[in-house]
Amino acid sequence: MDSAARNAMPLSDTQQLTRTTGNLITRKIWLPKFLYSLLPYFYIGSGFAAFFATLYISEWFWVLPQYLLFSAVCLHLGIIVYRRRARCDKISDDPDNS
Question: Which stretches of 27-63 are DSSP H helices?
């Protein structure tokens, strides 16, 4: 069993690409505090912008459902992020929690 562990097979090109891509996708990205605090407002603004863009489409167009779905997802994400941050701030500011 020891000899099998020492004689590892080299990874193929596809396996190597999958290995590095997986690390890139799952790696945590640290944003500056200013951008991090604006993130829920960016989501909400993008959602409203996409929703109002659908109002300017005069007739049925193939992109209309995508705009509506994108606006719903962005608004939903923005509200979730904002509420979670407000709840965490409220818990951390509570003097009884110390």
Answer: 33-55
Tokens of residue 7, six digits: 């004689």
pLDDT digit string, tens, across residues 23-67: 655 667 788 889 989 999 999 999 999 999 988 887 878 888 999
End-to-end CA distance of the chain: 53
Question: What whole-number distance in Å separates Cα of residue 10 and Cα of residue 79?
Answer: 47
Query: Residue 33 has which token pair?
Result: 């505090």
Instruction: Single out the residue of 50, 41, 87, 92 nearest to residue 69, CA to CA.
Output: 50
Q: Locate the domains of the chain by residue range.
A: 31-93
